[in-house]
Amino acid sequence: MIFGSVSEYAIRGLSELATRPPGELVMLEDLIAGTELPRYFMAKIFQRLVHAGILDSSRGRKGGFCLAKPAHEITIMDIVNSLETHDHTDQCVVGLTECNDHMACPQHDLYKPIRQRLKDYLSTTTLADLASSLRSKPSWQQTHLARQTAENERGKAKLADGGAKTPADTQTI
After folding, report:
1. Spatial contact of 132 and 19, defined as CB atoms under 8 Å apart
2. For the chain, which residues score pLDDT lower than 50?
3. In the chain, domain spans
4. Do residues 134 and 25 touch, judged by C-beta distance below 8 A?
5. In this predicted structure, what is the pLDDT of residue 158?
6. Number of other CB atoms surrounding residue 97 within 10 Å
7. CB 50 within 8 A of CB 9
């Protein structure tokens, strides 16, 4: 993709978070269950997103992460701009340090409209759009169903034990 791994992981994690009910605090462990997202790297990324105002977080047993704004108000561009130090969409496609209409590389005129379409896409595609797309995927539905089943089983086991704490109840963000 055109971003670094930080932005790619953030987009994947936030897309998953956006599938959850608004305002629901989700533990990072629960969020990445069934994905290949690396837990410790995601924790660092999510903390950066909290500082950027994209996420809210709460510590403790009932803590977790939630979106700081409605999913339809957060664009992919917002996410990338909060994590990347420079705009990768403005870089020269062949790697020149200076490439513009006055000092154009061989690909400049061909890539310029593609660059603009990409910027338009990033600026208009929201987390709500990504979550909707994710929910429609059979692989996500299958993983989500398995996750819900596991959560229900933990809840039943907890009730059977008289409300004793399980390892999942004592997780911290």
Report:
1. no
2. 170-173
3. 5-170
4. no
5. 66
6. 7
7. no
* CATH code for the part of the protein at 5-170: 1.10.10.10
How does DSSP assign the chain, residue by residue?
Answer: --S-HHHHHHHHHHHHHHTSPTT--B-HHHHHTTS---HHHHHHHHHHHHHTTSEEEE-STT-EEEESS-GGG-BHHHHHHHH-SS-GGGS-TT--S--SSSS--TTHHHHHHHHHHHHHHHHH-BHHHHHHHHHT-HHHHHHHHHHHHHHHHHHHHHHHTTS---GGGG---
Nearest to 25 by CA among 71, 56, 51: 56
Tokens of 27: 């533990």
Q: Smallest Cα–Cα separation from 87: which of 65, 58, 60, 118?
A: 118
41: tokens are 């790297």
Angle, CA 90 vertex, CA 86 and CA 92 arms, to 5°:
115
d(CA 18, CA 53): 15
**pTM of the predicted protein model:** 0.77
| Per-residue pLDDT, 162 | 67
Please state, in angstroms and rounded to a whole number, the distance separating the CA atoms of residues 127 and 54.
11
- What integer pLDDT is reported at residue 47 of this predicted model? 96
